[in-house]
Amino acid sequence: MLDLKGVDAGYGAFQALFGISMRVNAGEAVAVIGANGAGKTTLMRVISGMLPASSGTMTMEGSDLRTTPPHKVVELGIAHVPESRRLFPRLSVEDNLRLGAYIPSARAHFAERLDYVYGLFPRLKERRGQFAGTMSGGEQQMCAIARALMSKPKLVLLDEPSMGLAPVIVQQVFDLVRRIRTEGYTVLIVEQNVSQVLKVADRAYLLEVGRIVQSGSSAELAASDEIRKAYMGI
Amino acid sequence: MFGFFSSLDCSLDIFFVEALLNGVLLAGLLALLALGLNLVFGVIDVVWICYAELVMIGMYAIFFFVQTVGLPLPLAFLLAIGLVAIAGLLLHYLVIRPVLDQPPINQLLVTGGLLFLLQAAATMAFGIEFRNLGLRLGSMNIGDMSFSWSRIITFAVAIAAVVALWQFLTRTYIGTAIRAISQDRQIMPLMGVDQKKVYLATSAIGGGLAGLAACLMVLQYDIYPQIGLQFGPLTFMICVLGGLGNMVGGFVAAFIIAQFITIGGSCVATEWGYAVAFLFFMLVIFVRPQGLFGAKS
Amino acid sequence: MITQKHIAWAVGLTALLLLPLLIRLMFPDTDRYYLHLVIQILIWAFIYTGWSMMGRFGLTSLGHGAFTGIGAYVTVLLWNFAGITPWIGIPVAMLVATLAGLLVGYPCFRMRITGHYFALLTLAFTEFVRLCIIGLRDWTGGSLGTQPTRYGDGLSFYAVQFEPNRVLAYYIVLAVWLIGLMIWVKVDRSMDRYALDAASQDEDAAASVGINVTREKLKITAVSSAMCAFGGAIYGQYQMYIGPETIAGLGVSLNIVFAVIAGGIWSLMGPTFGAVFTQVLAEGLRVGLRGSETLSKLLGQSALALDTFIYGLLLVLFIIYMPKGVIGTLAERFRQK
Lengths: 234, 297, 337
Ligand SMILES: Nc1ncnc2c1ncn2[C@@H]1O[C@H](COP(=O)(O)OP(=O)(O)OP(=O)(O)O)[C@@H](O)[C@H]1O
Ligand SMILES: [Mg+2]
Known about the structure:
The structure holds 3 protein chains of 3 kinds. Chain A is α/β, with parallel strands linked by helices. Chain A contains 10 helices and 10 strands. In chain A, helix 2 (93-100) runs parallel beside helix 6. Helix content of chain C is 77%, strand content 0%.
């Protein structure tokens, strides 16, 4: 579904990603793990078009992502739940969801999608009139995911959904990720919480200072000594 | 310059009430003026210093369509609104867009340069004489008080426009995007929103509101090239008082400022009404720099 | 030690001192007009330098039209109605302007009003002063403006009137302008400058290293408003006419900021260059366009506003294409080569 070959990217003169090649097949859940500053967020931003890649090829179901303008990437079926949620704090929950359905194909089914995400997250329905910024961290994460699902995406990019949440809530967030997997979405997830994410994902890539240094099935990576030592504290 | 208050005397209560109500009527127009500017600032984060000059262009356009071309008034109004909306669009596309990455002061100045340019253009096209359409709408008398119909109509239309805009902003997708964009510009593309289009739409609506204000102002005021200098600073003041970009705040602030102007103006002289309004404004901002209704940042 | 810089200054200064002579030689019949132009440039250059004291530290005030207005009007009104000589009147006017500046500045700086808000708030102050001037029409002549009462033949030390003698006027404003440059250099070399630079970049960080941001800003506001008031007063004494739109109001404020941005806000000569540029441009357009018979036949009365039109257009183009000012942009081009 998603295919990256030799992708470089950076901020001005600073190069943050070096020759990234990876793929995500339909129906899979793929994890990207790595230390702080490894370039995980940068990778997500490159895929969703927020940051242009400087070289390499990048396709989504055959469409060239590098020539697609950023606001058209959603229309190809990629929804990005950004790091630290980035809800519109002074808009109501429902207005946030409405923006999630901004693209023409989603607008037509707004009511239907709204019912669908309220079904997934009944909590949001209770809070729909409330300013998104006044909800708890866990609720905000739900809202951010729900907003992404409003566009009826094929691929959901999740950037550290458990960030800044209490352990109990983190557990709920991973349950949530499982839920959306079973709903049939393809998932690409970035996480610091390596042991948890490897339980959810089918495959994983390990990113170190902008390069992919290891990849394989979750079970393989979870068994690797280096990863256990460096990222799982075992 | 402003014929709107005869030399009333404050000791007469009935005149005070009349001034108060006239203030309410004036507030409708000021609220409309502030609305367009606030909308543009809220979305694009740029102050159109030449906003009142767009209104002036609209007023001259109506004058031209009616007096020179001989069009009926309603058609002239529609054309003027469309024309100023296009002017707003062009203003954004040609002038604002190239300076979006520059420091705020340059953005302010570039529209300041436009202020000179538009005034000069109006002078070149129509001269410095005061013009008007010669409309006489009469006035409504309640007891000893009298209110001109032009002001009553202005008030009603302005309020209707405010309500309509509010509906647009809350009920439509692009309206929601307009309200969202200042809260997080970077992630707008993730929603599939094309920021450039939202900016253009906002500029056109801002211009259209200026055009509507022009339609209402020709009912009451003479047209001359410097009329923008009378209303421009007033409009900025109302916007800042209500919290820049805060449309509801601007609405309320318009009512407060209008009272200062009409009551002050009817007690002493027009300039003093304005001067007191500006003084009040500065005092408020010293206490609440974010404006009366702005959120603390 | 004598450096190249010193030599350049010496040459420039000598040239300026000899300028009236040069003008007389080159334009024997119209030397009064050209001197007038140079005098205007120097007066405005002084005012622009005064503004740039604040402007260069991110305090982009649109309120300086109020200070020039206060300077001009207080001086003239004291002279006309109380017979107080400008030798006292000008310092009083500067004091009034400084107090007004501090009064507006203090809450602004305490509440950390910056950016758009600062610009619009100071704009309101300008408008307030302009409305007061118009409102006090029994003394100020309202929107028609007023004149300082002529003392004798209009050439007087006591009344600080020097308009009839253009050469004298030139040397007076030259001195004023040089004083302005000296103040700029003094500020530039002071510790306050570093404090203000720091504060304009990050107020919290500046405060955390012990800089009293509010006090530093108030100091520079006092200097800046006093300078502009002085410039306004000298303008009134030279022009022998003051009007609410010519020396106060939003138009003046905008012109000040334009000129400094056009000339370059960061360098000593930037504001002066801005004055040369804007005055010559405005005057050139005025003379060139209004003087041209073909144009006035073609456009009739509307030729009257064509200069302002082109002036506005050029300002817009300059900001779009030369955002760093003429000097800054040229310097950048030069360095690239
Ligand atoms: N806007 C930016 N400008 C310049 N450099 C940036 C920017 N954003 C990130 N970087 C740099 O790019 C590198 C990768 O950052 P990135 O945010 O992708 O890391 P990450 O793997 O997501 O880290 P974390 O786990 O902390 O979120 C870092 O060295 C960072 O300093
Ligand atoms: Mg990250």
